[in-house]
Amino acid sequence: MLQMDETTILGILVFYLVSVIAVGLYSSRKIKSVNGFFLAERSLGPGILTATLTATVVGGSATIATAALIYRSGLPGLWLDIGGAVGLLVLAFSLAKLVRKTGLYTLPEITGHLFDKKTRFAAAILILLTQVAWIALLIQGTSTILSVLLPVEYELLLVGITLLFIFYTIVGGQFAVVYTDIIQFVIMIVGVCLLAAPLLLMEALPHLSRLSPEHLAFPINSSIGILPMASFFFMMLMPHIVGPDIYSKLLSAKDEKTARTGALFSGVFKLIFAIAIGVIAISAFVLVPGLTAPESGQALPLAITQLNPLLAGVILAAFVSVMLSSADSVLISAGTVLSVDIVRKKTIFVSRIGLLLIGLLALMLALYLNDIIATLKVAYTIFTAGLTLPIIFGFYKQKTKVTSTGAFLALILGGSISLFWLMLDSPGIDAVLVGLLVSLIPLIIFRKQPSST
Fold first, then answer.
1. pLDDT tier, 290 (very low <50, low <70, confident <90, very high otherwise)
2. What is the mean pLDDT of the chain?
3. Can you give the residue ranges of every domain in the chain?
4. Class in CATH terms, 6-378
């Protein structure tokens, strides 16, 4: 708990949260159609798209989970963030324009456009399952930070923060998500990059002798070798090339060029955030040594409490912004998938009911999986192994010759085998690499044969 006036803390948080709700209520006035609720009327320019996309991709996995992994296993844990940044850059120079060109609403809808209805439905189910886990991860991250600030039970914080972002997302749709993301993007840059990283590094400098060469070794060390490094990298690389929440932003861009520009600059910003989180995590290892359960994610917020109390309060509020800016984006994406691809009714009412149900499911999962790194692995492994390769092959089907049968089998086998391997928790090759390999096999076997002349 921070040693400062609780009234001040609560005042800052209440002001911030009330502002977020006010943005949601204001945004509801701009919704004139289903297109407005789902995709902000496809009106986002380069600057706004960059801000909202960056706010989306810099979330719990890029901050709390990465910091926890670096604290536990050393600097190679940074491959989680590096993989995501590289994925966005690859997206910018490959699929970003093609995604926007489809003019569709969701990633499963794009899957159906590339293949068939059966593959679209399977993709929608897989995406919804993984998005529930993604939201659970973000809820956990937010509650972890707030538990350092407030004398409230962790479970109550989970419930409260979930109801908050469900409310303003249901009310304001994609417009609310975009407007809050712009505010949160600015807060994130100031709080994480300009305040937290340099200030914590200065606090840690006199104690750097506590760091072992092994903890600073990069790109690998004894805890994270070649295969784990590859697993972390690909687990984050692929969902940033093919991701439902990311594609939701690209489909909201005003044109194809804007989609590419937003993905490019978002990749650059994510790399900047990766450097900042690496500095913060290493500083946390020095300032709050000996944590027995860094998977809880408290290494980062506990290190921040070593700073001036007022600055610490502001910085921790910035990390709350990091979580909410991703959670609302994933939630609106999941609600759109449920409405457009599962129920097949493009109505605001159906989507709002879906948002509520998905948010509550994520809350239950967050309460069940009280381990941020475990939640991250569940969410990203299944999605990466099941869906990313079929989509990439589908966009280039003239060259890859991929068929709907190959894509469907790749999706089902990649996702299910990776989940099975994850549940085995066996040493050796990580589940995401096994799943990607299994997914690749039917894509190669079931290819269109050249027509005989």
1. confident
2. 85
3. 6-378
4. mainly alpha
